[in-house]
From TrEMBL, chain A:
Pfam families: Fer4_11. The keyword Cell membrane does not apply. It comes from Stieleria neptunia. Residues 199-228 form the 4Fe-4S ferredoxin-type domain. InterPro entries: 4Fe4S_Fe-S-bd, 4Fe4S_Fe_S_CS, ET_IronSulfur_Cluster-Binding, TAT_signal. Residues 9-18 have a biased composition (Basic and acidic residues). This is Tetrathionate reductase subunit B.
Automatic annotation (TrEMBL), chain B:
Residues 29-62 are annotated as: Disordered. InterPro entries: Multihaem_cyt_sf. This is Doubled CXXCH motif. Residues 40-59 have a biased composition (Low complexity). Coiled coil: none annotated. Residues 29-39 have a biased composition (Basic and acidic residues).
Amino acid sequence: MTTTNDSPPKGEDGRDRSLPVIANPSRRTAVKGAFATLGAAAFVAAVSPLRQAAERTSAAEFMQSHYKRLTDEDKRKIIERLEAEAKENHGVEVEIADDRPIPGTKFVYAINLSVCNGNGKCVEACHKENNHDRSTGQSYIRVLEMPKGTMDMEEGNTTYSGVVPKDDKFYLPVQCQQCDEPPCVDVCPVKATWKEEDGIVVVDYNWCIGCRYCEAACPYHARRFNWKQAEIPAEEINPDQSYLSNRLRPVGVVEKCTYCLHRTRRGKLPACLEACPTGARVFGNILDPDSNIRWILENKRVYILKEELGTKPAFFYYFD
Amino acid sequence: MTRIASLLSAGVVCTAVLMVVVCWDGAPPRDKSHSERDVAAQSISSAPSGGPAHASAEAQRTVGETAHHAVVVRQPEGPPLIELAETDPQGRTGKVACSTCHSVRKPNLANRTSASLDEFHQGLTFNHGTLACYACHNPDQSDALRLADGSLVEYRDVMTLCSQCHAAQATAFRHGAHGGMNGHWDLSRGPQTKNNCIDCHDPHEPSYPKMIVGFKPRDRFLKDETTHDDHE
């Protein structure tokens, strides 16, 4: 360390030797130094959200690609990671599958409004099946108590309680209608939600940025935002999960009914249907001409919600 | 001065490298040969092979033709059994068949409702149109039922009896548009179990009972309108 400056500090014996910059506090260098420090501080401040992000999300999750671009090998690793995270954060062994559409199926739902009595068992079944937060009692289904004589959702009331059905009311369960022209998909700025071949509109929870445009765009109020990480006792977590369906979702993303694709793509009936004590719910493949759903569409008085919006729901309401 | 500048730039470079390393660590290596989507449905193998456990005790009957699995309609096990109010000298209670009493008692066709009974079955709630007891119960064989044409039908086949009047519901039931079900929508992958009439409808008082709403989501839209905690 030799000093090339014009006036070295006192003492050839080496004592009292200061750093050259400090020893030469010319105004120019002082200003330069100040701005350099400021710049460095600004840089650190600018990247600090990344440090926090790295604390909350694993690096692998941060770098994860869009679901549609994942190879089988990618999916295997991601699912392994998600299963490990569930084990670490919640202490449960979960099994996450990657259920794909069954070729030749288009799922359709129908509800018999003459029979539905608004008891809310479907709401509860959805809450449990899809690993919703226990404290908020979240569910993908909302049952509206409606005055007779209208199908206008805005007339409905979700806060009814007590003995049902009430004489002058009918009950309208509303969940994702899996529209053929889904406004929620159109507005997503990052394509984190899309419609699959069997008609189910899905969300890649790891690609969603939580802007909530889709929630605003949905005329059926069918989407839900994860305001907080779902808190569920370990023994109540449904371990039978699917990547695009009921796996434990991260906080700050949007979620929605998937027609229980982790069940229906394996041939089983959705959880809300099995829970319905009145038998108001019917589910099936509209492409199968012998299916129950086809008979209902051909023989019953069938309605769809907000038909004038042109969303083309795959969800029907009928009366006896 | 140049030293400070180089120190700073070295620091910046180090931070950048560190970030790249942190981000890259553990990231799955990109496979270039990626197949866009595997349409073939996976996890089919996990479809349950066992029959519906909750219906195994029930007698089973199949309707419809399917490739692999059947739609199983639940059935009553047999004629109803009457719980005896009295106990025997050993203190045991017992259940007896209808025929225990009715085989030795002459049927009184004049009795049309439970109100006119002077012994047994008193106080039975009955609210099923204007039917009389022996419209459905069989006066000649008390452990079976009776169709409108007088022919005998077993308790297990009670749906045949109901369908005489409730044909529209029976048709809807056949097409899955009436009555609850469990199991599989896709019968090539597993069976389906359906309720029968009397699982949901009490034959003596068939209108579906009122229920009490048990579960309500407590999301922010359902908060009491009178309390605004977001702006005070």
